[in-house]
Amino acid sequence: MALVVLFRIGTAVVNSDAPASATLVPVPAGSHWITTWGASPQRATAGNLSRAGFREATIREIVLTSAGGVRVRVRLTNAFGSAPLRIGLAAVAIDDSGPNTVAGTSRPLYFAGTRSVLIPPGGEATSDPVRLAIPPATRLAISIFLPRPTGPATQHADAQQINYVAAGVHVGGGGGPFRIRTASWYFLDGVDVLGSRRALGSVIALGDSITDGVGSPYDQNGRWPNDLAARFNDRSGATLAVVDEGIGGNRVLSSARCCGVDAVARFERDVRDQTGARDVILLEGINDIGASQSSGPLTAPHTAVSALKIVEGYERIITLVHTAGLRIFGATLTPFEGARYWTPAGEAKREAVNHWIRTSGAFDGVIDFATATAAPGDPERLNPAYDSGDHLHPNAAGYRAMAAAVNLGALLRAG
Questions:
Q1: pLDDT (tens digit, 9 = 90+) per residue, 67-115?
Q2: 174, 199, 299, 380: which has the fewest Cβ within 10 Å?
Q3: Which 3-state string (H, E, C) describes the chain?
Q4: What structural domains and CATH numbers belong to the chain?
Q5: pLDDT tens for each residue of 258-299
């Protein structure tokens, strides 16, 4: 195997195919890199630690892999930073419980052979690979020490996962004094694994809060992409990783301070550039419909978007996906009657959008989440057994029903 070291200043991508010792280690034939976990970056917002940022602190962030592998590398991001971000030290370990790690599993992360890396505004850094064998569905603890003031922190606001912060340097194994808890991820947007030839690539779930898992229990990894990954991991033969690129409140056509860059604009970072990306599942549009009923600066603009405009947004995403050599599956918008921003006019838009998804033939396949989650005899409402309580977001059972509605064979089939 040849030593490959890349450092692209423009986007601050650091990549190395050698461990920090520079000793090359053979890997199984047919192994290849794929993204096993992801979270779309967002700007800092009020209501968590992102607005103030961090200084002389360690963040320990817990993530769940989908596919397993024999090596790991971690992607850190300063996508929305206004100043260079100094990563002083970083490490990855297998999580035990809370901030605790499994003894003997902690591995220091290097960036082009050094422990520290400076990430410019808008950039990201990918660590050198480390030797850490992880099975599918492994909880990893990724620790990042930030020695200098970060300014407002690039984050993923709704992690549905408790993460931890401690003053000082605590990137090694064990627990440590992680007294601050947070329900967001910071400066972390992806984990790649060197997987076996059995793992064909990654499915990217591009969506909003329903893909992000809002309504599922914290720390339980009960999002529908997690349940889909579990279905893949339970089968024999070929499989796929599943990468969750959902953002709460996200829209197809409009960016908002609360809710991330719109789905069209974030395609390259969140879909095309994911390692081993193969298929895309698109579930977006309900917030485009509902935003016209909202108010306030965080959710602006509150444009009354038509069903036709949403479809045109879908067509732009489909073109981007196909141009990148990937396949895309359209998911029908789930019922939302009774939600705070439901109206009869909004329902008519949802039904028109779903009719187009089902009948246009524009997607490479259709996943009927609407039918899978609808109340018996009342397709405009969530099944009460699947309702988290707000009549918009499914609960854990509802997310399992969504994952069960996905045809695994269609995703695995060669394009």
A1: 999 999 999 999 999 999 999 999 999 999 999 999 999 999 999 999 9
A2: 174
A3: CCCCEEEECCCCEEEECCCCCCCCCCCCCCCEEEEEEECCCECCCCCCCCCCCCCCEEEEEEEECCCCEEEEEEEEECCCCCCCEEECEEEEEEECCCCCECCCCCEECCECCECCEEECCCCEEECCCEEEEECCCCEEEEEEEECCCCCCCCEECCCCCCEEEEECCCCCCCCCCCCEEECCEECEEEEEEEECCCEEEEEEEEECHHHHCCCCCCCCCCCHHHHHHHHHHHCCCCEEEEEEEECCCCCCCCCECCCECCCCCCHHHHHHCCCCEEEEEEECCHHHHHHHHCCCCCCCCCCCCCHHHHHHHHHHHHHHHHHCCCEEEEECCCCCCCCCCCCHHHHHHHHHHHHHHHHCCCCCEEECHHHHHEECCEEEEECHHHECCCCCCECHHHHHHHHHCCCHHHHHCCC
A4: 7-17+32-191 (no CATH), 197-412 (3.40.50.1110)
A5: 899 999 999 999 999 999 999 999 999 999 999 877 777 667
Reduced to 3 states (helix: H, G, I; strand: E, B; else coil), residue 71 is strand
Give the pLDDT band of residue 301 (cuts 50, 70, 90).
confident
0.70 exceeded by the pTM? yes
